[in-house]
Structures are given as structure tokens and as C-alpha cells.
Peptide chain release factor 3
Amino acid sequence: MSHLSIKQEVARRRTFAIISHPDAGKTTLTEKLLLFAGAIQIAGSVKARKASRHASSDWMEIEKQRGISVASSVMQMEYKNCVINLLDTPGHQDFSEDTYRVLTAVDAAIMVVDAANGIEPQTIRLLQVCRARNTPILTFINKLDREVREPLDLLGEIESHLGMDTIPFTWPIGMGKSFGGVYDLQLDRMRLFRPGQEKRGTDEFIEGLDNPLIQEKFGSAFDKAHEEISLIKEATPDFDHDAFLAGKQTPVFFGSAVNNFGVQEVLDALVKWAPKPGPRQALERIVQPDEPKFSGVVFKVQANMDPAHRDRVAFVRVSSGKFERGMRLKVSRTGKEIRPNNVVSFLSQRRDLLDEAYAGDVIGIPNHGVLHLGDVLTEGETLQFTGLPFFAPELFQGVEVKDPLRTKQLRTGLTQLGEEGAIQVFRPEAAGGALLLGAVGQLQFEVVAHRLKTEYGVEARLMPSRYTMARWVTSDNPKALRKFMDSNAAHIAYDVVDALAFLITSPAQLRVAQELNPEINFHAMREHA
Ligand code: GDP
């Protein structure tokens, strides 16, 4: 049992995710952060998980790993008296809508950039979600032990993609074979690079930029860095904590995750600067994190180990109060009571951290379809939080059942999988149109086909679709909406909650539709109703 008050427990929470493009070094950084925080066992399982994921590109393997993946989707560690929750975003080949939604449950993000590649496509997609929510972002530029791009170049690129000022906290001296280390602009000292460094407390520093020792050791690499640092000091604004919290500035760190270098600076900055859990807006009122009563929201639903039993785990981010095992909770949407006893354990450094949860923490509640995405759990009050987003799919496939006698099962299955958020299902308005599946990751289709078969006994046939985009449409003018629907009847569909969507084959088609229909709003995102 904690001897701290709810307010104190909330104040020491830091909940974040790491976003990156595959191979930028997210797994490595995760592992090193855990090592620095002393969570050695968790670090081991992170590596194991990635190894197993790479052992086979066959998603069936991933299916088998679901148990591991549930457990390691939230990692909890204690560092400098803070409780840090690291939420995994599967940014790899199993990229899916879940990845986006996880970002709605964090208070900050660390962006990992491969210094040779700069900002890459998958990072951009994830950044868009962070930007839409003004999530504060720390930037880690990785792989300085290789020949990489010019640091100033990288900063420019990051600024233009993020629309944020980059504030270097450290600056690299040399790169690749001549990588000497990083200069800490906050502490005015250089940390010397040693490859393969595993232990802590053995670091070497040289104090002061004008220290002749640095010049002596690193020669021209230092001269260049010195010039750049002077330039930066002149050209960049001071770090402003409020600007960071508002998502207007990102502190930047250079390093090499695999060499355990530059990682501690990021962890220290996270603890020092990243926000504690804040208030959350519900339709009814604003919910403060340190209110005595528990509330939480389901931001992700994942099928668990035993697909035959439709066993799923609802991931609940605590918004307020204190969760304890066995407490009675009410689902706001249905009024149903649940009493979660067998809460799923995520990876935690300390047993006692698992027994209670505060704002910012995540609990996993196994259930059989009682809990849906976006559901709010409370001690009795009815609350509805806004802001759980559904993103317009980028990939589409038509779906038909092989055996027409199973049509009903197909509909049931797709409705349930749609509610769970595994895939988006569109029902075309035009009579006779096949149901359409929409996803942001290719793997979602395979998972859904497999689950239809194993959980609903339906052999589904997936067919290519000409659609490449969708937009939800609304209008303040019902007549204009009617007219739009009539003139685009072949492209109109409804999603699982009967929201109206416009199916599109090309960006040009969208542009034309927008020009012709000024009274129609086209939305790339729909918030959970
Ligand atoms: P993820 O896909 O983003 O999780 O990337 P990983 O952490 O698995 O890293 C991808 C590859 O880059 C692996 O082979 C790592 O060993 C390598 N890597 C990670 N960090 C560094 C680094 O600082 N320097 C170098 N040279 N390689 C790195």
C-alpha cells in the first residue's frame, strides 16, 4: 500500500510512448531506458519480444505471441522517485489503428530519429496524432556512431515536419568513426563517447566548451561542433518549459542507443520536464486526476490468448482516483457493473506497483465483450470522455462470405470486430454492394480474416478495392448533405456507428468534391461517439 496521497502519486507519474519509423532504434532505446531505471528483467523481455517478432513475418507467430505482447504493451518502472509508464506502440509490420489510439493515452512522447535517414513516413503519421493533441515531444537523434547526416540539417527537417522549435540539449562532436561524444548545453560539459558502454557511473566528462582538452582530443571535429554550438546558442530560443508542454518546442538529444550513450539525458529530461497526468475533459465536466473517485477510459481492446473464448483485454487508462483490485466499477455506456479481480499484469519492476493504480497508469481488464473502445469506467457516476479518435483508413478490401448461408455470422463477426476497433467496416449505401473493410495497416486484414474463421466460423473472401481514402462527411445544411449523397450515391457508405462516409479513389477526387460542395465538411478523423 502506498503511503502517499493520491495527489502525490499522480504528481510522480510520467506516461509516455516512443514513436519512430521501423529500425530507427525504438526497441534498443526502450531496452536501455529500462536498464537505466534498473528494470533489468523487463529490459530482457523487450529484446525477446522483438526477436520473436522478427523470427517470422508470418502474423500467426505474432498471434502466438499475444500473451507476451499484452504483458509488454505497458512497461512500468521507477526512476528518481517517479513511476514511469512506457506504452508500447507497435510501429512495425503490425502497424494498426491501435498504434494511433495508444497515443491518446500518453502525456508525452519520445521521437526516435535515425540520424542517417531523418524523419521517415511512419514517424510522420504518428506525429500527426501527437500534433493534433499538442502532446509534448522529446527528440532523440540516434546512431551518431555511424556516418550520418549533418546535425543542423536534421534539426531543420524536424522543425519543418513538427512545426515546433527544436532546442538542442546536447550536441554531437564528430560522428561515425570520429564520434567523440556529446556536449551538454545545459550543464556545459562534454560526455565522452565510449562504444559498447554498458555500465553506469563510469562516464568521463570534460567541463566547459573552451577547455583546451576538448580541442586537443577532437581537433577539427570539435572546431566544427564549436562553431555549430555558437550558431545554435545565437539562433535558437531558450528552452521554455511551458512552450514544451504546449507542444511548441522539442528538446533534442543526440546519442547512440545501442552503445547506451545519450540515453540517460533523455530519461532525466523525461522525469524532469514531461508533464504529470492532467485533467481530462468529459462531456459532463472536467475530471481532475487527483479526485478521490476512480474513473478511467478504454483506449485499446486486444484479443487475448484464447481466441475460441473471445477473451479480450480492455486497456484502461486511469483518469482519476485510485484503482484497487476487486473494486466495483460501472460502465457508463451500459450501466453494467463489473468487478475486475483478475486484472492483467503488465510488466512492472515492483510487485506493489501492480496492486493499485493512479491517473496515468494503465490497467488491463479481461472481459468477453462487455468493454468497448471508448468506454468509461467509474465508481457510479456517468461520464463520457471525448477524444478517442478513429482515423480514416488508407487501405481497403471488399469482403464476402464464401458460404452464403454464413452471411449472418459474417455480419455479427464484423460488427463485433469493428466495435473492438480491430478493423473499420463500411456498409455501402448502394444496394448489393459488398461490405468494405478499412485499415491503416495491412496486417489488420489478415488478423480479421483469421479471427472471422476461428471465432465466428466464417470463411471470408477478401477482394481488392479501388478505394484509397475515406472521409467522414457532415454538414450544417441537411439539404446540401442530401444533395451531396444523391450525386455521389455510389461512393457513400456507413460505418459501425452509422456515421456517413465518402469513399474516394484518389486525392484529386477529394479535391474536386471539396470544391463542388463548400457546405460539406470532410473529416479525416472521427471521435468516438
Ligand atoms: P526499432 O525497429 O525501431 O525497434 O529498431 P531497433 O532498436 O531494433 O534497431 C534497429 C537496428 O539498429 C538494430 O540492428 C540495432 O542494433 C541498430 N541500432 C540501434 N541503435 C543503434 C545505434 O545507436 N547505432 C548503430 N550503429 N546501430 C543501432
About this structure: The chain is about 30% helix and 30% strand. The chain has a mean pLDDT of 88.
